Structure prediction request, 559 residues.
Amino acid sequence: MAEVKSDIEIARAAKKKPIMEIGAKLGIPSEHLLPFGHDKAKLSSEFIASKRGEKDGKLILVTAINPTPAGEGKTTTTVGLGDGLNRIGKNAAICIREASLGPNFGMKGGAAGGGYAQIVPMEDMNLHFTGDFHAITTAHNLLSAMIDNHIYWGNELGIDIRRVTWRRVMDMNDRALRQINVSLGGVANGFPRETGFDITVASEVMAILCLATDLADLEKRLGDIIVAYRRDKTAVYARDIKADRAMAVLLKDAMSPNLVQTLENNPAFVHGGPFANIAHGCNSVVATQTALKLADYVVTEAGFGADLGAEKFFDIKCRKAGLKPSAVVIVATVRALKMNGGVKKEDLGKEDAKAVTKGCANLGRHIENVKQFGVPAVVAINHFVADTDAEIDAVKKYVAAQGAEAILCRHWAKGSEGTVDLAHKVVELADSGMAQFSPLYPDDMPLFEKINTIVKRIYRGSEAIADKSVRAQLQQWEEAGYGNLPVCMAKTQYSFSTDPNLRGAPVDHVVPVREVRLSAGAGFVVAICGEIMTMPGLPRTPASEKIFLNDDGLIEGLF
Prediction:
């Protein structure tokens, strides 16, 4: 039996083309690519602006069932499908998010795909890449520093230091920083107060960068950030602190999409990276809109299961950017379906078609949910070597009964050769004109009713519940003119409920909304549900323990 290479070994052996050649595939002149080495580049804002009036290609969303420890392979499928579309002669591009260092050194791993369906350079993408996350972290913390500095030098704006809402961020999982006290140590260090850190991918600055359409829009949105309240509860904005323009300077280059390539030398835009369970989980609007002007088919993904990623993609990103997706791919694996059917991780190697069928309830729920948005869907069965014919047939039979089709995909082992059937089906759906996209709720629906709509129609819960203070806060925001914003649900990715251990397709559960946050610059209201944390912690055995430089100076252990 042939040795199975690791993702990093496969990526390292890639025969990459110069990034200027990849840009030429999409008609991007070399003078509009700012190279970072030979294999990655940023696209100029002038070129992006020059393409605004051109016709859009077809937008394909890749989403998935609820994640399990067995793995689903959403990014791998996104890359495999992009390569598959190019293989069958289509002009296709890929748009995905950048990887966060926190999950890379924690438990989740990287975000560049896997096997023979990867985007390269894999090591760079999963580490510092082009510095976008560092720029976002710095811009966010510049605002934090300027708030405390303003208070120190007399607090001209009358900020109530008990009501400073702007926290700090870093791009690492560190539970010790969730709640901290700052300005300790005496008069010279300012006024002590309680605050904390979120992970960078949960920053409103990250969300703003991913939703802004250009630098002018970016600066306006940064100015709209609410950082604190006065004693009379009126809002203090980032522009009041005079931080917005300096923040935009720090983000000038980070706003430009990054162009890289797949193992098969097809173009991929990798830009932005908001978490999907605590933020909106989609790559940047600028990257997606630009790709749609340059390619006939654009394959993008949304984080975690369709209950989080796809819902936010539709209700936040598509609503705000005017995008109209043509088709959806829902990724599932036999292994994950077995776990949803009650099989323990250590028993996944044993054939169990009955457990697969039982676990398909989770997949069926996602198919139903996607259809609510008026977009046709196909299921991609991401193949693992231990899958049996009986188990695969069980998935196909179940999906057929839902009025959809499930297609076996072997892109991890075979690259684009393994996604030809899926590519043909996606083209058929996208070109059919079947898509009649509309968001789940209208802009003018009250905020708590929007939350309840998602809970009932997507999570299949009985209701959302919240303390009186939370409802009062939502009402205050409505009175202040923010009632037309969409809601961003911060919830566990592992279940339709707020209990991460409740797999399958639970119904009639209650969804508690613990806290709400107004992201006025990004343009949504965050509803924090259950025990979700905006600063993750490292697991007992973090991935970082196995990441090292070998004797040749090459990185090992990234995945």
